[in-house]
Amino acid sequence: MELVRQLVERQCVHRMDQGDLSDAQVETLGLTLMRLEEAMTELCERFDLTPADLNLDLGPLGTLLPGD
């Protein structure tokens, strides 16, 4: 889930940087990303998870997402 969240966030930032969005769309995306972050934090707290728990261990290849 964390990978999908990060991909969506990067795509939103890319579209904002390209100027493809109206001011209203940028505002909506910003609020949506904030709510998504809050929801992820709430889920982590509810299920006693850390951000590291959301990363997949690919064995000898390392983790799916880079560490912070």
List the helices and strands and how they pair.
Layout: H1 2-18, H2 23-46
Helix pairs in contact: 1-2
Descriptive notes:
The two termini are 17 Å apart. It is built from two helices and no strands. Helices cover 60% and strands 0% of the residues. The mean pLDDT is 87. It has a domain at 2-47.
Could you list some keywords that capture this structure?
0% strand, single chain, mainly alpha, 2 helices, 68 residues
In terms of per-residue confidence, which ranges show pLDDT below 50 for 5 or more consecutive residues? none
Helical content stands at: 55-70%
Rounded to an integer in angstroms, the radius of gyration calculated over CA atoms is 15 Å
Bulk shape: flat
Helix and strand pattern: HH
Question: Mean of residue pLDDT?
Answer: 87
Number of strands: 0
The helix/strand class is mainly alpha
Main sheet makeup? none
As a percent range, the share of strand residues is under 5%
Q: What's the tally of helices?
A: 2
**Measured distance between first and last alpha carbons:** 17 Å
How would you summarize this macromolecular structure in one to three sentences?
By secondary structure, the protein is mostly helical. The chain has helices spanning 2-18, 23-46.
